[in-house]
Amino acid sequence: MTDSMTIDAIESAGAASVPPPVALAGVSKRFGATQALLDVSLALLPGEIHALVGENGAGKSTVVKVLAGIHQPDSGAVVLDGKTVTLHGPAHARSLGIAVVHQEPRLFPDLTVAENVFIGHVPSGRLGSVNWREMRRSADRIFESLSVHIDSSAVVRGLSMADQQLIEIAKALSIDARVLVLDEPTASLSAHEVVRLFEIIRQTRDRGVAVLFVSHRLEEVFELCGRATVLRDGRHVITAPTSELTAADLVRHMVGRSVSLFPRTTAHIGDVLLEVRGLTRVGAFRDISFSVRAGEIVGLAGLVGAGRTEVARVLFGLDRADAGEVLLDGKRVTFKTPSGALEAGIAYVPEDRHLDGLVGGFSIAQNVTLPIIPRLFPRFFIRGGRERAITEDFVERLRIRSTGVNELIEALSGGNQQKVVIAKWLATNPRVLILDEPTRGVDIGAKVEVHRIISELAASGLGIVLISSELPEVLAMSDRIIVLHEGRMSAEIPRAEASEERVMFAATGQMAEETSSGA
Amino acid sequence: MTQDLRTGSPQPDSSPAPIEASTGAAGRSGSVMNRVLGSLSAAARLEVFLIIILAFLVWWGAQLSPFFLTGSNFGFSIQAVMEISIMALAMTPIIITGEIDLSVESMVGLSSCVLGWLWMEGVPLQLGIPIVLLVGLLGGLFNGFVVTRWALPSLVVTLGTLALFRGLAHVVLGSTVVTNFPAEFRDFGFSYVPGTNIPWTLLAFLILAAVCCAVIHLTWIGRQVFAVGKNKDAARYSGVRVGTLKLALFAVSGLVAAFAGVILTSRTSTANPDNGLNMTLAVVTIAVLGGVDINGGKGTIPGVILAVFILATLKSALTQAGISTDYQNVAVGLLLIVSVITPLLARQFRILADRIRLGRWRHRLRRGRPARDPAAGEVVR
Amino acid sequence: MALSVPADVHAANRGGVLIGRLARSRELTLACVTIVMVTFVAIKAPSFLASTNLISVTALTAIIAIAAVGEALVIITKNIDLSVESTMGLVAFVVAIALKQQSLTVPEAWAIGIGLGLVLGMANGAVITIFQVPSIVATLGTLSIYRGLTYWVAAGHEINISDLPAGYTEAASQTFFGVPLFVLLAIAVVIVAGLALRYTVLGRQLYAVGSNAEAAATIGVRSRSTIFLAFALSGMLAGVAGVLWGIEFGQLYASSASGESLAVIAAVVVGGVSIAGGSGTVVGAAIGALFLGLINNALTVLQLPQEWLQVIYGAVILVAIVTDALVQMRAQRAKARSRLR
């Protein structure tokens, strides 16, 4: 690593000028067989917003967790104001002025918003007792500065992801931090909230706080950050001012090679398989209408929280619609459970494969056959040979890499796990396949494979609904793109007319009227 | 593993040296082998552990009294635990799905009282017993319905029906105690298969155990039970009718508890509202002793069967040692805690050993060349 | 989303939340239901409010309430203590034996009883936190073990009221300003525990551990120590309840207080402490104990057939938790709807 700093370098720099409030010096961290970080050095300066970018699994989150005191480096150190420190835990890191907003909110669902903001450093009154009124007031003040309306005495359970994310941010702001670390803070925020958050981050920076901003949204990096550091495979690649970089540079550094395009062969498009008319679920989405033909891939685009997953949940029988109808082959259907949807030929590959997709502790074969065992073995008894044969067929077709179908699912890599998830619902022999973020958290190689599989499935006559937050993916894969904005359809764009800008405008609601009148 | 997947295009930057890739694959398949063997032996180890305990208890009992190893002692001791053992069979899948049924002991009382009342009213037992079993089924369905319909914790719901069913038992029979059952009925709970020392009830238990074992370990119903216990949401997304499955399991538990009530009535020849009092804890004890994870997802019927024999042997040995039933609870409680702690301790030791081994491996790697490992994929939680 | 919502929707949102919170204030609703029930029963059967009746009801209720406060601490941390009844039984018996042999003065007897409870609770906590045994299994084991120890201590004997010093047993009938001593003691325990839970950092940590143990660890809460503490306190309060049990009944067997664990847990659950951890209050648990105690007594006073007592008791538990679940569901839905525009 040519441009990585050693402890000496940082300390000598410290002698020359003001030492950086926080720095990593040659940090390595290994988890079992995975080298998460290798000799990573990084210095944050006061009054700068520093971007940390990299692919999934590049080590961004490990850097955040080292700074947060959750992980201790195997070698190397965290350096605060030129002094090497050992962070004993998250509480210790906080007490040293390092505030961290984690990607997934880590809140206490049963406690109030205010208590969640201040937990760990509760305002106390006489006798060291908890001062509830002061706590609520302080929380309200922070939310006010964020221009956010959240009832600070409400219980967190049941709040939206966006609200929970805002509480996490308020929590970080509630301590007088010298270093603010934000791990993908915009993932579940709406466009307006992102704008507001950026204002706050800039204000924080102007107070002299060092900010580390972890994101995979490059436009945010260029909009917000002064310098950017790229990680790849746990190593430091480059640190440079964003003014000297282009988005293409960043991407090249991240992936280390030019991004391969998704192989999409257009299929013969047949009859309408699935038709949705005026589908509405109160609190999630309303008046959604679209159709899916055999051999067609319909992209469902929109920002997180626009209601895409919620539509899929209704189609799969996980939730009920309040109005509207779903037609399969022209016949009206309603599903009370996923098993009903599966029997009718609708399969749904869920967004979160760990939580909803796979059964940990089961083998590949046990996972793949789970949806079909009742049909596979009508006489109740499972025949292992049959089960293995079916699974091996899918393992081969989807090129799942494993030592055998009896291997435990935990032993597979993320990409292969995702392929098992797809295999599992393909095994039900569906006619309509809904894929929710099928490439989230898988590396680029596996991503291309997944796209190949989707493309082949469409070619074989399946109707496919593809939900994805990655615009290039939706654009490259879809024959038609439905864009949702805050629970409503804001555009339906055929493949030929689709562009990133057009989809993005519709997704942010800026061009809703124009597109609907044009379409 | 990352490299393995990047088959699409050549990678100028992160060129994975073939040597590394192969060591990675070898290391992985090694760990997989370990893991597969580990999971196999983990299941087997528990049962081996139970067999060792059982062997020790048999040896100890034999030292205490020559009478201990006789067939009549066997029949006598095993007969005393048959009601709870039969209920433990139905409790096992419920605990595997992550639920619990505390109400079984009251269902024993209720079914016993209904049987007594029907007999008093002149209903023949051939008709009475099916009615009683139906009552059990309905009670179990009620539990299952309340739990699944409103997604309530079964611990609380069955705490409620524990009181409810016991109360109904009192309502059915009042302060009467029915004892005048016909001799043929008493024989079922009290006597042995002719020419052997095998109680009829043990025969019933073994048949039920075989059925249970087959359903749980060999059919897709059992597979779904484990899937629900390991990951309820993934099971639901996979089309498992989680609610229906749980409803059925509770219904079976109620039915089996009613059957246990019939056995108890037959063995003691008494229908009494207090029948079955405090049995639930014994039932759960057997299941947990047999290796069923109280948090769901794990457990085997053979383990539960072994636990039944351990419990019967322990009680019999303690009796031989002159320790009264009242103190025997201490031994049962200790055994329960020890049986849970031992595998946990064993795992701790294994982790420690692994860590030492891994440390050595890492050391070697560092000396050899800059550590560059195939990035392991994400792991299912 | 929250940002783009106009003010009127926010008002509606707050209103919904307020209604939700009122509906979810289990303590308040349960207290109201209790008052309605008492009024109804008192009209039907005035003897219900006779002081002799009330004193006898409240004595047992106070004992259960004290144990329920301890149990609530444990359940808030997402654990359960099934062994309270055995702790109560063992403490009651050991104290009584010590007094019978006149080896102790009355205050010493109290101290020994409470101390023994504490030790038994710490034993539970140690097994659960050191060896990571699920609490339901560990306390299922100690339920048997402590009961077995009681049989061993009792050795076939029983204790009669005449065996105990008068200064000890008369506490059962003592009143201050017309309020029985037991009730005062229970109120004191509830107030101290309630304030500690709401206003101390340690109290909040109990909730934090029960609500999200993983997140609690990241703010530096030691889950294990916190859970250990909850079990130790639960044992100690079960010890207090055990001493009171001995005073109230005077006559003790090795099987005394058998079955009371379920009564204690029922009180906690009916009082609105969620078995899933992280929510509920000790006030609720105490009101739950009072409610169930009064129902039991009301059924007797109303001269309903004795057999129906337990049926109604069980039905009340079921109705309470089902209603609670429905109200919660409604509140959540209201929250979701108010967010939508």
Keywords, separated by commas or semicolons:
heterotrimer, A: 519 residues, alpha/beta, Rossmann fold, 2 domains, six-stranded mixed sheet, 20 strands, disordered N terminus, disordered C terminus, B: 381 residues, mainly alpha, ABC transporter involved in vitamin B12 uptake, BtuC, 15 helices, 75% helix, globular
How does this structure look, described?
The complex is a heterotrimer of chains A (519), B (381) and C (341). Chain A is globular. Chain A folds into two domains: 7-255, Rossmann fold (3-Layer(aba) Sandwich); 272-518, 3-Layer(aba) Sandwich (Rossmann fold). Chain A has helices at residues 7-16, 60-67, 90-95, 113-118, 132-145, 161-174, 191-206, 218-224, 247-255, 308-315, 338-344, 353-357, 364-369, 373-376, 384-397, 414-426, 444-459, 471-477, 500-507, 512-518; strands at residues 22-31, 34-44, 49-53, 75-80, 83-85, 98-101, 179-183, 210-214, 227-232, 235-241, 272-281, 285-293, 297-301, 323-328, 331-333, 346-349, 432-436, 463-467, 480-485, 488-494. Chain A starts with 6 loop residues before the first helix and ends with a helix. A six-stranded mixed sheet of chain A has the order 6-7-8-3-9-10, sandwiched between helices. Chain A is of the alpha/beta class and 519 residues long. Chain A is built from 20 helices and 20 strands. Helix content of chain B is 75%, strand content 0%. Chain B contains 15 helices and no strands. Chain B has a single domain, classed as ABC transporter involved in vitamin B12 uptake, BtuC (Orthogonal Bundle), CATH 1.10.3470. With 341 residues, chain C is an all-alpha fold. Chain C has a single domain, classed as ABC transporter involved in vitamin B12 uptake, BtuC. Chain C is 75% helix and 1% strand. Chain C is built from 14 helices and two strands. Chain C has helices at residues 7-24, 26-44, 51-76, 84-100, 106-130, 135-154, 166-169, 181-199, 201-211, 213-218, 223-249, 260-270, 282-301, 308-339; strands spanning 175-176, 179-180. In chain C, strands 1-2 form a two-stranded antiparallel sheet. In chain C, helix 3 runs antiparallel to helix 11 and helix 4 packs parallel to helix 6. The longest helix of chain C is centred in the last third of the chain and has 32 residues, at 308-339. The radius of gyration of chain C is 22 Å and the shape is globular. In chain C, 53% of the residues are buried. At the A-B interface, strand 2, helix 11, helix 12, helix 14 and helix 16 of A face helix 1, helix 2, helix 9, helix 10 and helix 11 of B.
